[in-house]
Design goal:
Blueprint: H1 2-14, H2 22-28, H3 40-48, H4 52-65, H5 70-88, H6 94-100, H7 104-128, H8 133-151, H9 160-176, H10 181-197, H11 200-205, H12 211-222, H13 228-244, H14 248-261, H15 266-275
Length: 278
């Protein structure tokens, strides 16, 4: 009986979300077709509702109007990364899965192209102003997305130049601005990656990692007051960490909160249907 009730509740969450407050519905709903092109806010809504293809398309259109928008490059590589992750699945033979994936060639080409262009833009800005905080952050985040692609969906132990550039860039941001929430989240991911994905010897060569510290920083970041999508990014990251570590009680609690903001997100709904006991 509980399973039936839970299914109905989740199905309603996937549906219209009519019961949400107006400000929350505005945050999770799709863009209004008023004749204008998509905005970064539209793409963020799509991304956090797990509509990664829509987000990537919107960001490409946005970039055609604003070709130097670093936030668009960073978010689009994130959307493409999640598309590749979904397309390749959890097959143990990553190279075989990549060769068999019909859409992955195009996704990979788009990801690598956007990464290269975004890196070039950030490096040019940093050459003009080494203290450009936004450029430092986006360079770190673009490189981190590249490292995640290699270690995650592709299963390759490569991307070390990008790793070191990401680490240096994010450390530089946090040295200047210790309260930079997005940089704290990204830097915590580096701690987690090194501690959990690398053998001890390699971990030491990469500057060391610390899974416990990653959890502490993620929790602090998720509880820090910031703009809506910065808070959401931290909450999704904290949820992901708990799922990876099989801490399902905490993961369910976080997912419930996120699902209230993003009832269209089928990944959250699927997770709650499988793991929420209530």
């Amino acid at each position: 009986m509980r399973a039936i009730v839970r299914f109905v509740v989740v199905a309603c969450m996937i549906g219209v979300g009519w019961w949400l407050p107006v400000d929350v519905r505005a945050a999770q709903s799709g863009p209004v077709d008023d004749g204008a092109g998509p905005t970064l806010l539209d793409a963020q809504r799509s991304f956090y509702n797990a509509r990664y293809d829509d987000a990537a398309t919107q960001l490409l259109e946005l970039r055609s109007e604003e070709p130097d928008d670093l936030a668009a490059y960073e978010l689009r590589t994130s959307a493409l990364l999640f598309q590749l992750k979904a397309a390749l699945g959890d097959q143990p033979n990553k190279e075989k899965a990549l060769k068999a994936c019909e859409i992955c060639t195009g996704l990979m080409a788009a990801f690598l192209s956007d990464t290269t262009k975004g890196q070039a833009l950030t490096r040019a800005r940093l050459q003009a102003d080494p203290a450009d905080e936004a450029a430092l952050f986006f360079l770190g985040k673009l490189n981190l997305n590249y490292v995640w692609l290699q270690l995650g969906p592709l299963g390759r132990k490569t991307g070390w130049n990008e790793y070191w550039e990401a680490r240096r860039s994010l450390d530089a941001v946090l040295k200047r601005n210790p309260g930079h929430v997005r940089a704290r989240v990204a830097r915590a991911w580096i701690d987690y990656i090194v501690d959990t994905r690398m053998p001890w010897g390699t971990s030491w060569l990469l500057g060391g990692g610390n899974k416990k510290r990653a959890f502490i920083i993620m929790r602090e970041a998720a509880s820090t007051e910031a703009d809506f999508f910065t808070e959401v990014e931290a909450e999704f990251a904290l949820w992901d960490l708990h799922v990876r570590e099989r801490k399902m009680t905490e993961a369910v609690e976080i997912a419930r909160g996120l699902a209230r903001h993003f009832p269209e997100n089928r990944e959250l709904a699927k997770f709650l249907l499988a793991h929420d006991p209530d």
